[in-house]
Structure formats: structure tokens, C-alpha cells
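pls design
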């Protein structure tokens, strides 16, 4: 009798909800690195193996996905980006790639055609010096708004310059700001800025520096409806880019509440790990009291970390360095937070059960943060799985590199920053510091440190493929230089895949639940049209995400 039941249970396999078959599936599980097929039940991986083995789990209710030989990996984990920023960016007109004034006008006209009467049209990123041809009428180096007024007579328009130092408004917006009629006033002069006027004394729509705020202050503040729109767009972007889990690098209670609302409504299509904005002490106090929120049921929204912002960036020479900038003698950058605060927050975070994630770019900032972490760790000797992180960890002194491994501090890097910044970063740091300690992913791995990957979107586009490419080539997206920058610091494809999957999961204490394709783990997958693990490196940038699966549900599928 017992034998009979056993035999039956062996031959009749459990029925799967979803079967993904006939693929090249990289599992990030060293014991079983490549399989052909996966069976999924209740959002988790039920079995994996060859296509014929997994066929045993098919029943009439099973959804079947045939990969036709395509490549699948564990769902990609974006370890450092800004959720609402991604969404809000999409709500505004992106004028960064516009090549003429006419093209800018076309974009505004399209937005006007979709807008409610009187609704503001906002955008950012235009730059008249990048246009292939200039309009006939230019005043003080800028276009004028005559044509913009024709395109949008009734909707106020407000467009920020790429530099952030100027804006371009239409007549309707200027009228609302009371600057359409300057008679009797001192024309054009504003404290700390300028309203640019044409030869007849009429405003041209261009406002510089602080004059921009005359119109900018009228643009409606973010409303709850707009926030919902932004989150919807951000989640759509995550799904399209194959991101199944997302570390939100610093948000407040209103964002957490909004994500919670989406979760309740079944609209949360990626798993969220939110870092609390450390700039808000009241927020932190509230969370110390209530303790971390660890979503052990759905694994969709967890809050158990604090983001601190410790220095600036290399571009603006704000990154905090031990030695002066090579291209600005006597200048060292600066901390953006008294370093004691890192220690104080850490000492409260540890007993309350929170991880601390500090932004540090320069070698001085990295050292100071490590010192503060070390001091705090020393006060809680019995707590040994804290997994504190340094966000970016871009430039580290040789002496401090081993401390990541020794202290168990995670380096949450963004490989794509190397592609964008390395060509000029050498001017800031000089050859020796670049070679010793800038973007030293391989050196960090060799100390035993965990290294994650991400994009810092919307600073860089959210697409993980360029950042994956950067991590294995150490080249710019134009493919330069030959062989890559400091080639001995490249990641192998396997290391790069792990950084974007299992290591990301580890950085949020979820490596037991996701990050690799193993029986019992979450059915989070990303499918690519090309084999990013094997194609020649110059082809990686042409790869695209075909499908995204979160908890066994297909949240994105390329339409063709
Ligand atoms: Zn960031």
C-alpha cells in the first residue's frame, strides 16, 4: 500500500503553473550552472532540468513559454537607483536629444495635444548649442519664444536648460508670472538672474539663473495623482528593462506609503527594497521605534536600511579626497555630512535592526565612512551579519580596499559610471590614483567583499545591459579604448551576472529567497534576445530584454 503511494507520487509529477522551456538558462548556482527548463508553482521554482524532464510537470492548467533557445537569467536586481525620479523624468518632456528648435516645438505641440486646457507643459534637457541649426532670430545666444507661443497659446510651457542655469517659457507662462508687461519697471533685471529681452524690450522667454524661479514657482507642486502616475511609469520601465527587484536609494514616508498602496492594489510588479532618506531625522526616529519592515510573506516591500549622503561627485570636484585634485591644486572636495553623524546613525541602526548605506565617492569619504562603521561595529561585537554598504565606492585608497572584505562592507557600485566618467576622471585624480583605487571591482572581490551593480537611474538610464557591458569590458559605450580601462579590474561574465543578481539579493538579505535559479526560490527571471554570457563583447550593447517574470507572473513581454 505504502509502496503503491510512493510509486504513484514519483511518476505523477505535481502540476506546474508555468513552465519555461527550451532555453539556455544561467542559474547563478555553481552546483548546477546551466539548465534548459524551469517549472514554477505558486510563484516559486518547483523544478529545473532538461526540457524533457520538466515536461513531466505539464498539465492542462500549465502556462507554457517556449524560449526557442533564448537566454534566461535570474531576475536582474538594480541595487542603487531612484524610483520616483525615474517616473517623474518620464512625466516631463525629454529634450536632451532634440537637434533643432523645430524639433523642440514638435515635442511641445505633441504634449499640448494630449494636455488638459491650462495644464502646465514641463520639460528638461534642451541645449541650443547642440542644435544642428540655429533659428534665425537669436537674442543673447538664445532662441525666442515667438514660435513656442504659436504652438502653445493656452498651456503654460516651462522647459529647463540642460545646464540647469536657464529656462525657456512661453508667453502664457510669463503672463501668469506677471512678467509679460515690464513697462515702468527696470526691464530684465532680477536679483541674481536675468529676464532676457529683445531689442524692443519684450521678454524672449529665456530666464537665467534665479529669474527662472519667477515662473518655476508657479509650476504646480507634485500632487498625489502625479506621484501615482510617476510610480506607474517607473514600474513599467523596470518591467521593460528586466528589473525584478529594485533598491530605492533614499525615500521618505510618502513614497513608502505609495508603494504600499500599489502593493495592496496588486500593481507592484517589482520587489522593492527601500532605503530611508537619512536626511530626515524624524523619519529615522519613527522607524527606529517601529523597527524594520521585513516582508517575509510576499517579499514585495521591505524597509530595513538607511541612506546617508557623505560627499559629492567627481565631476563637480565635490568628491572628498585625501590628496588634492590633480586638476585643481589645493582643493580636496568636501563631506556633505559631519562624519560623526554616520557613527551616530550606525549606533542607533544596529540595535534597531537597520542596515546603513552611505554614499561615498572619494577616497577620503570612503575611509571616513569605514572608520565610522568600524567604531559602531566595535560597540556591538555580538552582531556580526550587519551587511553595511558603501554606495558607489568609486575611488578607494589602497590601504582601505581590504577593509571592505575584512569588515563585510558591501561595495554597491554602478559599472556604467566608469563608461561615462573614466575618460575625464583621470584629469581629477591623475594616473596613479586611477590605477590604484578607482572602480577597482576585481580588487574588491579579491578582498572577499560583495560587489553589486546598478545604474543610479535616472542619473544614467535604468537599462542593465550597458552597465553589464561596462563591468565586463571597462569601455565607454562608444567601445573605447581598445582592451578597456585598467583591464585587470574587469569582471568575468559570471561575476558580472552575479553582481546583478545574487549579490544584489545578498545586499538586501534576500539571497535565500531570490538571486539564483534554484528549487524553492522565487520565480523571478529575465529573458534576453541574445546570449549576453557568450556573444562577443562588442555585441552585448545590442542585446534586448524579451521578457520579465516576477514571482511566476510575466510582467513584460516584447510584443513582436
Ligand atoms: Zn543615487
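designed seq:
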Amino acid at each position: 500500500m505504502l509502496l503503491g503511494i510512493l510509486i504513484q507520487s514519483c511518476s505523477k509529477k505535481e502540476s506546474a503553473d508555468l513552465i519555461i522551456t527550451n532555453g539556455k538558462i544561467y542559474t547563478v548556482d555553481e552546483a548546477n550552472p546551466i539548465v534548459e527548463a524551469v517549472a514554477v508553482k505558486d510563484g516559486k521554482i518547483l523544478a529545473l532540468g532538461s526540457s524533457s524532464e520538466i515536461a513531466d510537470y505539464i498539465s492542462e492548467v500549465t502556462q507554457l513559454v517556449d524560449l526557442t533557445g533564448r537566454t534566461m537569467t535570474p531576475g536582474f536586481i538594480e541595487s542603487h537607483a531612484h524610483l520616483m525620479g525615474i517616473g517623474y523624468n518620464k512625466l516631463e518632456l525629454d529634450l536632451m536629444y532634440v537637434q533643432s528648435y523645430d524639433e523642440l516645438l514638435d515635442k511641445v505641440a505633441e504634449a499640448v495635444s494630449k494636455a488638459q486646457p491650462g495644464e502646465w507643459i514641463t520639460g528638461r534637457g534642451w541645449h541650443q548649442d547642440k542644435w544642428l541649426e540655429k533659428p534665425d532670430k537669436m537674442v543673447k545666444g538664445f532662441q525666442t519664444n515667438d514660435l513656442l507661443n504659436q504652438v502653445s497659446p493656452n498651456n503654460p510651457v516651462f522647459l529647463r536648460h540642460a545646464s540647469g542655469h536657464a529656462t525657456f517659457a512661453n508667453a502664457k507662462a510669463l503672463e501668469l508670472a506677471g512678467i509679460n508687461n515690464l513697462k515702468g519697471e527696470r526691464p530684465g533685471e532680477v536679483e541674481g538672474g536675468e529676464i532676457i529681452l529683445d531689442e524692443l524690450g519684450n521678454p524672449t522667454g529665456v530666464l537665467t539663473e534665479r529669474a527662472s524661479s519667477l515662473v518655476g514657482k508657479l509650476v504646480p507642486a507634485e500632487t498625489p495623482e502625479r506621484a501615482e502616475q510617476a510610480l506607474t511609469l517607473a514600474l513599467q520601465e523596470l518591467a521593460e528593462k528586466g528589473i525584478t527587484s529594485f533598491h530605492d536609494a533614499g525615500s521618505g514616508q510618502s513614497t513608502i506609503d505609495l508603494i504600499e498602496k500599489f502593493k495592496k492594489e496588486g500593481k507592484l510588479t517589482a520587489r522593492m527594497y527601500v532605503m530611508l532618506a537619512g536626511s530626515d531625522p524624524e523619519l529615522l526616529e519613527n522607524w527606529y521605534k517601529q523597527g524594520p519592515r521585513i516582508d517575509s510573506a510576499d517579499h514585495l516591500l521591505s524597509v530595513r536600511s538607511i541612506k546617508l549622503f557623505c560627499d559629492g561627485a567627481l565631476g563637480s570636484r565635490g568628491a572628498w579626497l585625501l590628496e588634492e585634485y590633480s586638476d585643481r591644486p589645493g582643493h580636496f572636495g568636501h563631506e556633505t555630512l559631519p562624519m560623526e553623524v554616520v557613527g551616530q546613525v550606525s549606533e542607533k541602526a544596529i540595535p534597531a535592526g537597520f542596515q546603513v548605506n552611505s554614499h561615498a565617492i572619494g577616497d577620503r569619504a570612503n575611509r571616513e565612512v569605514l572608520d565610522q562603521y568600524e567604531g559602531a561595529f566595535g560597540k556591538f561585537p555580538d552582531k556580526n551579519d550587519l551587511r553595511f554598504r558603501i554606495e558607489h565606492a568609486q575611488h578607494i585608497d589602497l590601504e582601505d580596499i581590504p577593509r571592505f572584505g575584512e569588515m563585510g562592507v558591501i561595495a554597491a557600485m554602478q559599472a556604467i559610471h566608469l563608461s561615462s566618467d573614466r575618460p575625464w576622471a583621470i584629469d581629477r585624480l591623475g594616473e596613479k590614483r586611477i590605477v590604484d583605487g578607482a572602480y577597482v571591482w576585481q580588487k574588491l572581490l579579491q578582498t572577499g567583499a560583495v560587489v553589486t551593480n546598478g545604474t543610479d537611474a535616472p542619473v544614467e538610464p535604468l537599462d542593465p545591459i550597458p552597465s553589464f557591458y561596462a563591468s565586463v569590458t571597462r569601455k565607454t559605450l562608444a567601445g573605447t579604448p581598445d582592451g578597456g580601462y585598467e583591464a585587470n579590474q574587469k569582471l568575468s561574465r559570471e561575476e558580472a551576472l552575479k553582481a546583478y543578481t545574487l549579490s544584489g539579493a545578498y545586499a538586501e538579505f534576500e539571497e535565500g529567497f531570490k538571486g539564483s535559479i534554484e528549487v524553492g526560490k522565487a520565480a523571478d527571471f529575465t529573458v534576453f534576445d541574445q546570449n549576453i554570457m557568450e556573444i562577443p563583447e562588442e555585441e552585448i550593447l545590442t542585446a534586448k530584454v524579451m521578457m520579465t517574470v516576477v514571482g511566476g507572473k510575466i510582467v513584460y513581454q516584447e510584443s513582436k
